[in-house]
Amino acid sequence: MIPELSNPSVCMRDPQGVEDIIKAMHKAGPNTIQVISDFDMTLTRFAYNGKRCPTSHNILDNSKLISDDCKHQLKDLLDEYYPIEIDSNRTVEEKLPLMVEWWTKAHTLLVQQRIRKDLLQVVVKESDAMLRGNYQLFFDHLQEHHIPLLIFSAGIGDVLEEVLRQAEVFLPNIKVFSNYMDFDEAGVLKAFKGELIHTYNKREGALLNAGHFEEIKFRHNILLLGDSLGDLTMADGVHNLENILRIGFLNDKVEERKPSYLKAYDIVLVEDETMDVPNAILRYLTSTK
Ligand SMILES: Nc1ccn([C@@H]2O[C@H](COP(=O)(O)O)[C@@H](O)[C@H]2O)c(=O)n1
Ligand SMILES: [Mg+2]
Description:
Subunit structure: Monomer.
CATH topology of the largest domain: Rossmann fold
Subcellular location: Cytoplasm
Family: Belongs to the pyrimidine 5'-nucleotidase family.
Helix content: 40-55%
Bound molecules: ligand L45E5XJ5, magnesium ion
Strand content: 15-25%
Distance between the termini: 10 Å
Protein name: 5'-nucleotidase
Number of strands: 11
């Protein structure tokens, strides 16, 4: 049905179950589909030529807008909390307060740096941020078939929008839920807006944004893309969900985390820096054969 499902990066707990979901979504047609995707390390690459690529936070953390002292502090936070974020031996309940602590400390430091809105464009351009291979096909295909794409990110909304704009894929069918910066009249960062979104509270974020799901309530079939187990709750606001196909990018600590990813995601893509598998599935879902 979809030759790319035999790629070496593809792992599935239940290949027949995956085929059944895809067939049901294909039968229902593109007008019933919506895509919900995480941003960092899902739409963007985890690594390129063996080097880690930055998250939307890291784009700022590593930029010329941040003092050396603050860079060290942000790096210390990353070294302390990222291993906790991806630790398979801790429960989500254990991780929750620690994630709030990480995001709160990092955002406090960023605010202290008095970041200028007009320089975001420059730092994104100067960064090593990269979308996954063949990302253009993904965005163009969704736009062409009028399929809404919700990008649901615990990263920084202003930065991720700029990444998409510079890649010329910030298209009208895209909606973003994320942490947005609040600037003062002089265009200097003074706070972050609204409720904090971190890796493990996307369910709450989804429920807070009920209006979006209401607008597209006739789209009961979901293609969900994520790289963290926290991303699985991004579709919790969807009305009368019929079919959901969950695709998880397993980027880091592969052997340790594979069992839990196989249990939670229908398709697990191991160290795959491309959009080839989601693209092939979308091509099939929107085909008439
Ligand atoms: N100070 C921080 C906080 C979080 N991160 C990483 O960002 C990712 C969240 O964004 P998603 O688009 O993936 O929801 C998350 O995986 C954290 O590792 C960071 O780099 N710095
Ligand atoms: Mg992510």
